[in-house]
Design goal:
Order of helices and strands: HHHHHHHHHHHHHHHHHHHHHHH
Strand content: under 5%
Structural class: mainly alpha
Number of helices: 23
Distance between the termini: 202 Å
Radius of gyration: 70 Å
Largest sheet: none
Amino acid sequence: MPRKELDRFHVKKTRRFRKRRERKLLIQVAQRRRERQRARVEANLTSSSALLICDPKPRRSFRRAWRWSLVWLSLLSFMGVTVTAGVLWLTKLPPPIDCQNLSRLATDGDRLFCAQIGATSGKLEKLEAAITLVQQWSPNHPLYPESRRMLEKWSGLILEIAQQKISQGKQSEAVSIASKVPVNSPLYPEAQALIATWKQEWQRSEALVNQFKEALKVQKWQQASQMIAELSTSNREYWSISRVDALMRQLAAEKLAWEQLEEARDLAKLNRLDQLEEAIALAGKVNPNTYVKVKAKAEQTQWSRTIVQIAVTYFDQQEYDSAVNVLERIPANTPLYQEAQDWIHLSRAFEMAKKDTILALLDAIAAVRQIESKSPLYRKASTQATLWQSYLQDHTKLQVARLLASFDQQKTLKIAINQATQVVPKRPQRIFAQTLIAQWRKEIQHIEDRNQLASAKQLAERGTLRELKTAVEIASTIELGQPLRLDAQSAIAKWNRQIQTIEDQPILDLAQAFAQRRDLIAAISTAGQIRSDRALYAQAQTAISDWVAQVQTAEDRPILEAAVALAAQGRFDVAIATISQISPERALYSQAEALKNSWIEQSAALNREAQSLTPEAY
């Protein structure tokens, strides 16, 4: 009889056994109930008969008998319903077993039934649970024969699962699953034999695979092909088909990767930037699952290092844009990519810092902050960031100082100078700070000079000799090289003229008084006391010149008149000789020269006329 039919027969047999046992119990319960009901009915009948005999009134007895008839009828009806319900309950099939919520008090038959149901799913955990249930049953157990049969069946299913795993190349899983066949299983020897066979074949195949890998590492393609050929002779489907195909694909990938690396090396030998970039890109295309990839990575690192060195040369020459252009040639899949990016950040930061502005320094600091602590450039970037931070502080100080200086007050200018002096030597802003300090000191001096000059002008406006001299003294404190020196000197010259005018005006007035009294000599002598460096010197000289002219005119007028009289007599030669006595520095010299020239012409005309009348003319 097939196993499935035996299983169904066993299940039906178990169910019939349970039904018979439960039916017996129900019949016993129903019999006990009927006996109790029968005893109660007999007791009631006895009491009713006694009442009927003792009742003296027939009519009353009839009523009681009728009532008791109704009671008996009700009892008989109830008993009939009860018996019918019991029979129906005894003939009804028991409920099915709930294997999901199996009680701890369940029988071994129920547990075996649930184990069989679970094992039919073919799942490993269900098979393990079923085996765990029956493997501890002793031969005295009523279900032992059935459990042995099922144990063999379940062990076979476990070995089938292990066979599937070994076909998939999962040797460790297959061994682990086959090891779950218990020692008391009929298939235990077979399971152990399979495990030993799998381990032996796996060790041999793994040894060939290791030799294959070693051959690939040293590019021995023929030896690797021989290893594949030996593996293809394996009896296992996994080794003969799936794994062999995978190894052949791996061999082809290694060959292609080696060809790509060789081509990249040929390009890199030229040691030019474009060819190095192309070589790095070609090496980056090498399959990452190949052994050649390790060498390709090493070559990429070497070629990338060459590019980085070229970029560093540009960086040292402060050609930061050129350095960035070179570093951008290093692709992202190379080991030196992050270092190249750090150099790019540093180069761009230096380029921005050259502008030496607040925004540029902030951008430069932000750029170098992107360099992580594990980078080889971190120390250099950190040092530069600290330096640029100090430059930024200098800019901030100068900005504050310039803001304070914009109020154009002595106190704020002094505070601004104090801020600017905090920019220490050898800083980029040091020269600018010194320039601002010099400018602000001039502004302070200008404010001080302006205040002094304003004070001096205020005194000078009073116009007295004392205030004017005091104003000159105050303005004279504005030294040479100070901003308002020229204005002060102009004001001093003006006030000195006013002082000289006040001092010399009495002398000039006295001279004019002498002149009015016609004492021209005294007037000239008095006005001559005014020195040439005095404010009224020109006015005095003008008056003296006028008075001297008057004196000279009075002295030379007789000579001029005598000469005119002689000329009127026709005595031109004598008139010319007389008028020549008036020297060029005399007041009437111009008039005398005019008359003299006129007389010379007249005398010459007379001579020509006289000559024309002589006998020689005829």
